[in-house]
Amino acid sequence: MEQRYATSPAEVGAASTEELRARWLVEEVFVPGELRLVYTHHDRIILGGAQPAGKPIALTGAEQIHAEYLLENRELGIVNVGGAGVVNADDERFELPKGACLYLGRGTRDVVFSDAEPGSDAQFYLFSAPAHTSYPSQLALPGQGTVRELGAQVTSNERSIEQFIHQGGIKSCQVVMGVTTLHPGSMWNTMPAHTHDRRTECYLYFDVPQDARVIHLCGEPQESRHLVVADRQAVISPSWSIHAGVGTSAYSFVWAMAGENQSYDDMDAVPVESIR
């Protein structure tokens, strides 16, 4: 499990492009046949990916956090961004088509990821945070979350937001998780940008064409920075950092948060004219 320490605005303001990418960008989330995990000290989030590639993969990494098993004191949100897959969690079996979201509560001991059938190429995105109590494991298929339509074509940000783990959906201790899909012809995932000093947010960009990129805005509003992100790469966004993005084509992304509260709308908008 890779470790990444928390960063301050002063450190980021002086960082080179290479340093900024090393701090906040996870370039290899999915590697065939492997489990990849990154531990960030921003709200003690663990994020990563499991790509079975024809061979079941068990959820490991407990030794790095000095636990008997990874979810001994944690909860986990999972979104499948690949082909049809299966998650076996203790004595339960969950079938996840692309776009499905599974929540596993604290105390889930044995977790195994696999393809639903040979060659289906499931890709499970993982987002975990500390949990103080246990909630039931629950699966939501695409379309079963709370769908919100935001933006407009005239502003190039018409998008569908499907909330899965949130106050009005799947219950958790502190994880909030969902998927945003931009409509054809739209490229901005949000603008004006915003911050929320009360929680860390992470993004997994997917369905980005091979020859396309997403420009992820970050940093302080008065000293903005950016990351150039390819398909199936993830970004760690500290609570104090703005986050917005524009692509060279339409795309989708998994957003997930953990921190002080679970209110999706708890955000501090940053007017466009104030960003530098």
Automatic annotation (TrEMBL):
Reported cofactor(s): Zn(2+)
EC number: 5.3.1.17
Family matches, as Gene3D superfamilies: Jelly Rolls, pectin degrading enzyme 5-keto 4- deoxyuronate isomerase, domain 1
Binding site for Zn(2+): 194, 196, 201, 243
Pathway recorded for this protein: Glycan metabolism; pectin degradation; 2-dehydro-3-deoxy-D-gluconate from pectin: step 4/5
Keyword Zinc in record: yes
Name of the protein in question: 4-deoxy-L-threo-5-hexosulose-uronate ketol-isomerase
Organism for this UniProt entry: Propionibacterium cyclohexanicum
